[in-house]
Design brief:
two-stranded parallel ribbon; 8-stranded mixed beta sheet
C-alpha cells in the first residue's frame, strides 16, 4: 500500500519508448516466424543440373509489371510464342508477331482458362500495390492458374514470390525484416506465403523463385541462387531483368524442380 500523501511514480518517457520498441521488435519477429511457417519449406535439395524439353508456347501472368515486361521481352528474344494475360493491354507497350495479348483478370477463372489453352508452361510475376489491407489476390489468382493448368494439361509453373518467406525468412536483411515488412508489407507477404503453400501442394511441375529487393538495373547475366541465398544482416538486391532471365531458365531445366531457390546478386 502506498503511504498517505505519496504521489504515484510516473513511467519515464524513456521507459515508455523502450517498452514500445520491445513490443515492435517482438511483433516483427513474430511476423517473420509466421511467414516462415506459412510459406514453403523445402523437403529436399535441388536435383542438380538437368535439361528438359524446351516448351514452345508460354503464358505470362502479370506481364505489365516490372518483372513481367522483362519476361515478355526476353521470352520473345528466346523464340517463344508468348501469350500475355493483362488487365490493361495499353500498359504492355509491346508488339511482336509471336506475342498474343489477352485482356482479363487473374481472379476471373474463365478468363484464365481461356488464356491457358494451348500453353506448355506458365510464368507468373503476379503482383499489386494494395499493401494497406488484407487481400488474397496473389493466392486466389494462383489458385485459378493451377486449376486452368490442370484442365488443359499444362505441366510447368514458374512463379516469382520473394525472399523472406518460408525457409528464406529473414534473408532480406535487417532493414527489411524490422521495418519494411512489418510496417508496410505484412498483408502482402502473408498472401505471398499462402500463394507459395498453394503452389507447393499442387500436382504441377513447379519452381518458386524468391528474388531479393528488385531494381530496374541492366541484366548482368549472372546471379547467386539456391536455398541459402540472401543475408540476415544486409539488404540483397537483383534486377528484374536478371530475375526474368533466371525464371526463363527454369522452364528449360529441372535443376530446381519443386524447390524455392532464392536469387540475388
Amino acid at each position: 500500500m502506498r503511504p498517505f500523501g505519496q504521489r504515484p511514480q510516473r513511467v519515464s518517457r524513456g521507459g515508455r519508448e523502450m517498452t514500445l520498441l520491445f513490443l515492435f521488435l517482438s511483433y516483427a519477429l513474430a511476423l517473420s516466424a509466421a511467414l516462415a511457417r506459412a510459406g514453403h519449406r523445402a523437403q529436399s535439395a535441388a536435383s542438380g543440373e538437368a535439361p528438359r524439353r524446351r516448351p514452345a508456347r508460354v503464358l505470362i501472368v502479370g506481364a505489365t509489371g516490372g518483372t513481367g515486361r522483362q519476361l515478355v521481352a526476353q521470352a520473345l528474344e528466346r523464340g517463344y510464342a508468348v501469350t500475355a494475360l493483362v488487365r490493361d493491354p495499353s500498359r504492355l507497350k509491346a508488339e511482336h508477331p509471336q506475342l498474343t495479348v489477352v485482356q482479363g483478370d487473374v481472379l476471373d477463372a474463365a478468363t484464365v482458362e481461356a488464356a491457358m489453352r494451348g500453353q506448355e508452361a506458365v510464368l507468373s510475376a503476379l503482383g499489386h500495390k494494395r499493401f494497406i489491407y488484407p487481400t488474397r489476390i496473389l493466392s486466389e489468382g494462383t489458385r485459378n492458374i493451377l486449376r486452368a493448368m490442370a484442365t488443359h494439361g499444362v505441366p510447368r509453373l514458374v512463379c516469382e514470390t520473394s525472399l523472406g518467406i518460408g525457409d528464406s525468412a529473414g534473408r532480406m536483411g535487417l532493414y527489411f525484416t524490422f521495418f519494411l515488412l512489418p510496417m508496410i508489407l505484412p498483408f502482402y507477404f502473408s498472401d505471398k506465403a499462402r500463394q507459395e503453400r498453394i503452389i507447393a501442394e499442387s500436382n504441377v511441375e513447379w519452381v518458386i523463385v524468391r528474388p531479393g529487393v528488385l531494381t530496374n538495373g541492366e541484366k548482368r547475366g549472372r546471379s547467386r541462387h539456391g536455398r541459402h541465398v540472401g543475408s540476415f544482416l544486409w539488404t540483397v538486391r537483383i534486377s528484374r531483368a536478371d530475375v526474368a532471365d533466371f525464371m526463363l531458365n527454369q522452364i528449360e531445366s529441372d535443376s530446381y524442380l519443386r524447390t524455392a531457390p532464392g536469387v540475388c546478386w
